[in-house]
């Protein structure tokens, strides 16, 4: 059995006719720049998220940079970002001339740790960018309280969290602005690059629109220098079709995560963030007395599982074993941002971000996509158990749970 980390072809098969119809219409009408589907998608996505405005842009990184410029971030301003995320979050800060200030992640969710934010705030701090990592919402109540106390902007990086919910409220509606990526592998992905900025602040929305469109209010009337960052109308058409299916796809991701949780609990004793102390103590330990953890949401049922991530001290050996059995895995992310060469000038050490440093060698992403089925998940879990029954022995204490 061969199981990819993500199967983009499986999704395309289910909506092939719908996609063909809108793409043929765009080509027939030669409606390539802005256009009908750009307008329809932005209106629909704003309604889906629950904001007044959605501005489509070229990609998720552009969305972050434009959002930062819209709130007036400038040279030498400081912006707080998580130590554990994709480089685009920090890269955008540097690209607008500001200084990146990293904060370590929570030990369970791997989202930014709000308890460590205030210690990093200085007189130059202007903004916090929490990332809703792996599809799980960050702790927005605490973050917003800190931002209000220190008069800071909050930009939600929701590139991995289309449709995620925090305490009954859609992510993307909590901060001053939010940014999304529509890279093909996202929960809502285009057939190429794409991104968006959403906000309910009409003044900020106006600035975002002008910044993304050469700083102009009409074709040749430019109030300031901006850039050219548009959501391609062909991509907008694809996204307009896919958006109609997103809730169903997200629900399937959640169901698949629950199947993973149940199988892994039963056969391997893997624990999640939601387990009780009693339940955890009943599970076996693996090499070095450590347990495997499945990263699940700490804050209700809002996780849309862009990724399904486990932590194991035997990460590399387990990944190799799974690959030998036709199962693709990923690592998100193998090097914490503060430890990349790109940020060596900040002179950070492992002691500055102990959680990020410790877990960068333990995290492993298992296959996750809506079309993944129960039989495939069972096969993956059986191969994980096989690894601990054989490859990791004798340090593994075997589970007494049933075999599947």
Taking pLDDT < 50 over at least 5 consecutive residues as the criterion, the unreliable ranges are 271-290, 393-404
Query: CATH H level of the largest domain: which superfamily?
Result: Type I PLP-dependent aspartate aminotransferase-like (Major domain)
- Our measurement of the CA-to-CA distance between the termini, rounded to an integer number of angstroms, reads 17 Å
Most strands sheet: 7 strands, mixed
Radius of gyration: 22 Å
Give the tally of structural domains.
Answer: 2
**DSSP strand (E) fraction?**
5-15%
Order of helices and strands: HHHEHEHEEHEEEEEHEEHHEHEEHHEH
- The mean pLDDT is 90
CATH architecture title of the largest domain: 3-Layer(aba) Sandwich
Total beta strands: 15
Level-1 CATH class name of the largest domain = Alpha Beta
Order of strands across the main sheet: 1-9-8-5-4-2-3
The helix content, as a percent range, equals 25-40%
Query: Helices and strands: which structural class?
Result: alpha/beta
CATH topology of the largest domain: Aspartate Aminotransferase, domain 2
How many helices? 13
Shape: globular
């Amino acid at each position: 059995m061969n199981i990819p980390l993500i199967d983009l072809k499986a999704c395309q098969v289910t909506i092939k006719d719908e996609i063909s119809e809108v793409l043929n219409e765009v080509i027939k009408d030669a409606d390539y720049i802005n256009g009908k589907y750009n307008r329809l998608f932005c209106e629909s996505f704003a309604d889906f998220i629950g904001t007044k405005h959605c501005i489509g842009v070229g990609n998720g990184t552009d969305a972050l940079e434009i959002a930062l410029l819209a709130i007036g971030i400038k040279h030498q301003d400081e912006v707080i970002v998580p130590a554990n995320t994709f480089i685009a979050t920090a890269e955008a800060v540097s690209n607008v001339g500001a200084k990146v200030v990293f904060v370590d992640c929570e030990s369970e969710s791997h989202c930014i740790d709000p308890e460590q934010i205030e210690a990093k705030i200085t007189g130059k701090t202007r903004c916090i960018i929490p990332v809703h990592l792996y599809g799980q919402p960050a702790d927005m109540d605490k973050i917003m309280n800190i931002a209000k106390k220190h008069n800071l902007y909050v930009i939600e990086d929701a590139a991995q969290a289309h449709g995620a919910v925090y305490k009954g409220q859609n992510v993307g509606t909590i901060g001053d602005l939010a940014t999304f990526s529509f890279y093909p592998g996202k929960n809502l992905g285009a057939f190429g690059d794409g991104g968006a900025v959403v906000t309910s602040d009409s003044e900020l929305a106006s600035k975002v629109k002008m910044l993304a469109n050469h700083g102009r209010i009409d074709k040749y009337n430019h109030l300031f220098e901006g850039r050219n960052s548009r959501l391609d109308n062909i991509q907008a058409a694809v996204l307009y079709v896919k958006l109609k299916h997103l809730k169903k796809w997200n629900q399937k991701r959640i169901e698949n995560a629950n199947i993973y949780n149940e199988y892994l609990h039963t056969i391997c004793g893997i624990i999640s963030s939601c387990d009780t102390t009693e339940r955890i103590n009943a599970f076996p330990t693996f090499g070095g007395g450590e347990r495997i953890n499945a990263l699940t949401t700490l804050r209700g049922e809002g996780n849309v599982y862009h990724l399904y991530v486990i932590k194991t001290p035997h990460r590399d050996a387990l990944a190799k074993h799974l690959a030998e059995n036709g199962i693709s895995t990923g690592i998100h992310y193998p090097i914490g941002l503060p430890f990349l060469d790109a940020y060596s000038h900040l002179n950070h050490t492992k002691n500055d971000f102990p959680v990020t440093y410790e877990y960068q060698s333990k995290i492993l992403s298992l296959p996750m996509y809506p079309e993944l089925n129960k039989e495939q998940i069972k096969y993956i879990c059986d191969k994980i158990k096989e690894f601990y029954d054989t490859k990791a022995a004798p340090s593994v204490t075997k589970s007494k749970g049933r075999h599947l």
